[in-house]
UniProtKB/TrEMBL annotation:
<dbReference type="InterPro" id="IPR057358">
    <property type="entry name" value="UBL_ZFAND1-like"/>
</dbReference>
<keyword id="KW-0863">Zinc-finger</keyword>
<feature type="domain" description="AN1-type">
    <location>
        <begin position="26"/>
        <end position="64"/>
    </location>
</feature>
<dbReference type="InterPro" id="IPR000058">
    <property type="entry name" value="Znf_AN1"/>
</dbReference>
<dbReference type="GO" id="GO:0005737">
    <property type="term" value="C:cytoplasm"/>
</dbReference>
<dbReference type="InterPro" id="IPR035896">
    <property type="entry name" value="AN1-like_Znf"/>
</dbReference>
<dbReference type="Pfam" id="PF25327">
    <property type="entry name" value="UBL_ZFAND1"/>
</dbReference>
<dbReference type="Pfam" id="PF01428">
    <property type="entry name" value="zf-AN1"/>
</dbReference>
<dbReference type="GO" id="GO:0008270">
    <property type="term" value="F:zinc ion binding"/>
</dbReference>
<keyword id="KW-0862">Zinc</keyword>
<keyword id="KW-0479">Metal-binding</keyword>
<protein>
    <recommendedName>
        <fullName>AN1-type domain-containing protein</fullName>
    </recommendedName>
</protein>
Length: 232
């Protein structure tokens, strides 16, 4: 059986056709010749597989794209500057105030504050919920606050010992010449809480309320300055 591939003229003809269809590459320094080549969609030149990407053959469209981007940024900057210059001074926002947090002008609802306090307050879990009095205790020595709850029958004198112990504040009221006595003060009025009254008594007289802030401080005075006590 005769096979055309055994004929030398077949291979000579095939090599001639292929060599005529090889495409020269447009990238300087590349000697590769491809049968078809890859056309760049930006510059429409033909390249080999190794140089088909824009970055591989230094496509002029890359530089043009970067120039267009810089030009667009310049136009936006000029537009913003022109717009701000036409706005009234009261409506203009300076760059220095853009990243500053806005002051919270609204105080937290007392009911919401009490709910948050109950979530984090610590105390004797054996106390029934209806007998618990929730307080936010602030120590002027430690400058920290802690949420606590105690039984409504607890008197202020006993409460002072419990709060001082829990806050790790040394109570030297029983030591003579130990300096100003430690006491509990109202977080809003600054008045000293009477040691002989119970929490229930102060709740009934509306001196205290659930979630009230009380201050642990050393003072001989019946009233202290609470203007620097953090609001809750």
């Amino acid at each position: 059986m005769y096979c055309i591939k055994t004929n030398p003229l077949y291979w000579l003809t095939l090599n001639t056709v292929v060599s005529c269809r090889l495409v020269r590459i447009c990238f300087d320094g590349c000697s590769t010749a491809e049968l078809w080549g890859v056309v760049c969609p930006s510059c429409t030149n033909k390249f080999c597989l190794a140089h088909r990407h824009k970055s591989s053959h230094n496509c002029p469209s890359i530089a043009q794209s970067a120039a267009n981007k810089l030009e667009e940024q310049a136009r936006i900057k000029a537009f913003v500057s022109q717009t701000l210059s036409k706005m009234p001074a009261s409506n203009c926002t300076t760059p220095n105030t853009l990243n500053q947090p806005k002051a919270n002008s609204k105080k937290l609802n007392p009911a919401v504050s009490l709910i948050k306090l109950k979530m984090h307050a610590t105390g004797d879990t054996k106390i029934l919920p209806e007998n618990r009095v929730y307080l936010l205790c602030y120590s002027t020595e430690l400058r920290t606050s802690m949420g606590v709850f105690y039984h409504s029958n607890t008197v202020i004198g006993r409460l002072l010992d419990l709060v001082a112990s829990k806050a790790n504040v040394k109570n030297t009221n029983n030591i003579a010449s130990s300096g100003p006595p430690l006491g509990l003060f109202h977080g809003k009025t600054g008045n000293r809480l009477p040691n002989d009254k119970s929490l229930q008594d102060l709740l009934k007289s509306k001196v205290l309320s659930q979630g009230q802030c009380i201050v642990l401080d050393r003072s001989h005075e019946a009233c202290i300055d609470v203007s620097n006590i953090p609001e809750t």
